[in-house]
Every structure is written in C-alpha cells, then in structure tokens.
Structure of EXPERA domain-containing protein:
Amino acid sequence: AEAMGVVSAVADAVVVLFSLTIAVGVPLIDAQAVLSHDAYPAQLRDLKRWYAAEFDDYLMAQPPAFFRGLLCLELAFLWPLSVATVYGVLARRRWAATTSLMVGVTTLTSLVTLVCRPLPAHDLLRACWSEIKCAACPSDLQNQRSTPQ
C-alpha cells in the first residue's frame, strides 16, 4: 500500500509538471504565432526566435495554417484544461483525472498531426520502398529496381 502511495505521488508530480509546462508555454511562447506580436515584450519574442533558430523549428519560425489552427486549439482548449489540471491535482480534486485525460488526448491528437504532416504518403512509400529488400528477387535485379511508379 505504501508503494502505491509513492507511485501515485510520482504520477501526480509528472502530471503537474507536464500541465504546468503547457500552462506557461502556450500563452507565452506558442500563442505568439496566432496573436499580435505587439502583445508580447521583446524578450519573449526574442526567446521564440532563438528557439526556432536553435532547434531548427520551421513550424515556430514560419507557422503554416494547419499549425496555427493547432495553436488556436491549444489556446482555447488545452491551456485552460492544463491550468485546471494543475489546480485539481494539487488540491486533490476527483475531477483532476478527467481533465488530465482530456489534456493527454488533446496532446496526442496534436502530436499525431504534427508527426504525420511532414511526410506525405508518397514520400513515406518511397522511403519505405527504398529500404525494403525483395526476398523473392535475385540480388542483381534488386540493384536495377527503381522507385515505384
């Protein structure tokens, strides 16, 4: 029973840290891509530019329309849920599990969108085709084989 208390405390700490990161990062950094630049001090604008350059994050440097849509979703839905989750976990509210689950599902949905977006289907198939070795083909035919039509 005592081990479960430790596991629960560690899980709560991870959820609070994750939710706190979202609660702080979304309005201060991510929202710069959708809100007026005048709404932010120069230090925060410089931090966003530094991050985009340092980590070669083209989505933050020049956010495409789909990414701005995801950021609007973060501002309208994920950010308030993250704030509620931090409060709920720290205050030991029963509903914190629900808001935490909602934050996780929203984050996973955004992550899938971001991971799949840069790889259109034809590029993914071409990459996979170049890595697959055809066991039925003689090795000299494998070398002559080109990408699928």
The longest helix spans residues 2-28. The two ends are 61 Å apart (CA to CA).
